[in-house]
Amino acid sequence: MSDNHTRKPVSPSGEPQYDFSQQVGHLLRRAYQRHTALFQQIIPDTQLTAAQFVVLCAVRDCGACSLSEIVKRTAIDQATVRGVIDRLKSRKLLGVRHDDADRRKVLVSLTPAGLELVDSMVPFAFDITEKTFAGFNPAEKLALVYLLNKMCESDVADLSGN
């Protein structure tokens, strides 16, 4: 590790200075930017965004599901999910219908074209994940995924007051 990652800048008063470049939020944002850039470079459907792919995968995994279920599964806010669903619906990748038991509830499901697209994109998604981990050994990959999951789980617990 280089010196700039181990030394903490010190203010004239001797207190450690805040180095934004070493803060978890900044590092997560940079890692996400790297991953998103890889997604855009590798995924062959140039109209498909990472958020759209995640929504398609969530709907594939749960079958016909409500908007709130998609929000919960993807951790994408409701307004964004609505826009994603509208765009995917206009591409005829998703179908939307009212629940027979509760007409107020809208159910979202994959169309055959949506299922075909998801299935054809999955190998590219695996490649994107591997390229995101470029330079990591297997233990580092496992550790990072474990720690990110732990962070996400503690976030859910913190938000629910537990």
UniProtKB/TrEMBL annotation:
It comes from the Bacteria. Pfam families: MarR. One of its GO terms (molecular function) is DNA-binding transcription factor activity. Residues 21-153 form the HTH marR-type domain. SMART domains: HTH_MARR. GO terms for biological process: response to stress. PANTHER family: TRANSCRIPTIONAL REGULATOR, TRANSCRIPTIONAL REGULATOR, MARR FAMILY. This is Winged helix-turn-helix transcriptional regulator. It comes from Pusillimonas minor.
